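For this section, I looked closely at a protein sequence along with its fold in token form, which I now present.
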Amino acid sequence: MNFFDWLLESTTSLDSALWGPVMIALLLGAGIYLTIRTKGIQFQRFWYSLKLVFSKDSRSEEGTGDISPFAALMTALAATVGNGNIAGVATAIAIGGPGAPVYMWIAGIFGMATKYAEGFLGVYYREVAPNKTMAGGPMYYIKNGLKNKKAGKIFGAVFAVCGAIACLIGTGNMMQSNSMTISIANSFNRFFHSGVAGEQAPAVYYFIIGALIAFLVGIVIIGGIKKIGHVSEKIVPFMIGFYLIAASIVILANIQHIPQAFIIIFKSAFGLQPMIGATVGMAISSGISRGLLSNEAGLGSAAIAQASSASEEPAKNGLIAMTGVFIDTILVNSMTTLTIVLTGAYMQTQAWQGLGASDNITSILVTQKAFNSVIPFGLGGTIIAIASFLFGYTTLIGWSYYGEKCIEYLGGNKVIMPYRYVFIIFLFFGAILTPLAGESFDYLNIVWNLGNIGNALMAFPNLVGLLFLAGTVAAITRERLIKMDSI
């Protein structure tokens, strides 16, 4: 067994252990509990939350904070709408079958209440850091909100440690740079060397693209949250629109098969569709874990972004934060799911064919196959490469901020700049992991496993904190909503 075989086996085992029944029950349970305590905030205030996002007030930087509420949402969406929406959905389908997205949707609906609570608490318990910027997030609301102050300090520090590590190895770093580099290198290989779709590009492509991504991320994150916020509010609306239009082309080309696609999705979700390499349990686990990886409801990351918002009203920030889950999971993820199922790209995965099939593909290669089947001359893959770059780039700059706020909580302002450099080093390693690992595309699951592991480490202390603070969220939400309704 070589190193990468061992790493794949180890990360797969740890991923399975962390994302077992306990974590899934905790994640869904927290969403359901917060839905009940807030009286279904995601249902009763959904249209109002969208109205807030598009209001002039959401773009105002007046008030206590570093950036406007809209920029805070775009920063959170920059970090949230990433390669998890393109490659993560595909990976969930590759592992759990075409029914996995059903559990993404279920988790997303209840996750909206979770995200509301995170955005609310991020503003309610934030502090002013020594460098005069706003500091907030799970580490602060756990520390300041729990009645047992000793437990609050311990759990707050645990989240900060887990968050700082997760931002290096997982969701917002290596996973993004890996997917971006694979997609771009694949497109270059097809155009310049007549490479076959799914064939690994020359190693030099990965090193050059990885270095370019590291440079482009570095010039933004060195500028801090104001630079990140301003870049995010310019790029994010464009990139989401670009991807939705491209996905619509693939879907419209197969519009007559949409009813059959939904039959396959739901039959697979409940074990009614025979598959060689996946079970209902795998669909549930991969759907919920990749759903969290995609929409981040339960991680607490949105609370860090919302805490920087120039707003005094935690309920409004919670409502604005909540819309991120809808945009990410219900909108973008659903489009990716339909392109993969409608084109039959899911049939070339381990879930459908079994582990070890010679032509298995996973991650972003599944999505590229779906787009290439409709859009000719390899342009479908090029569109995915562009979307992957934009999604990954904004996610990287957003998550670098999350990581630095976690490390700032632990070590103060002096450790922020060194952390930024370490972040860029890990980013580059994620980009070149594919040629280092060799020919097997199964090794690409390593970065997704690491992303899931990092998510679990962040989710556990955050979810515990949310459950303890649910009463505070419910009580103050009722009071603030009554006040908002009277205006």
Observations:
- The CA atoms of residues 308 and 440 lie 42 Å apart.
- Residues 445-486 form the longest helix (42 residues).
- The chain has 21 helices and two strands.
- The chain has one domain: 3-486.
